[in-house]
Amino acid sequence: MGKKYFNKKNRVFNRSLFLTIILVSCSIMTFAQNSHLKFKGIPIDGHAEKFVFALEKQGFTREKMSKGLDIMMGKFTDYQSIVLIMSSKKTETVHTVCVKFGEESSWNSLLFMYKKYQEMYKNKYGESDFYEESFDYPFDSNSEGLEMVVVKNDKCNYMSRFDVDGGTIAVMITDDCSLTIYYIDKINNEKSQKESQSLNNEDI
After folding, report:
1. Peptide bond connecting 138 to the previous residue in cis, omega within 30 degrees of 0
2. Pairing of strands 79-87, 94-101
């Protein structure tokens, strides 16, 4: 099955959904967070360059770099994927890693990927702390045959969130017809928000 990774019509990630995940997870996670979340065994911490180098040692290649966002490609759980490394504006501290798999051409294949990874994370971390599997109006569960239209119109809400030691992992279907997985480190996400607020204060 052919899959697309870079497409002018596709956004790299859903910004509004990403923000929602952060706000919800940060408000719910009340237990002590003294450690950092890991991605492929690498703590989501430190300068972005250091994190990129650690992934390069595992066979990933850097496709694009800019302050606050590095884009790499490589294999994650045996699938070729795009990996986005997001870092804070001031100190460029890594706070989030986003894995995007290739664009799927059918709802069945997209749903298969979602269910597969949902089960993988359940097996490791237990039941999800939050999940939603629904379509927004005017679509509903009876919209058989229109599922990919729903996805492309950003009306598909399929997401499982796991609050784990060090942060949050979210598995979701995004409007570029791909499966997307977020690893959000709690400590550094809070640090990034503080840095952004500090820079905004300097502007005003």
Report:
1. yes
2. antiparallel
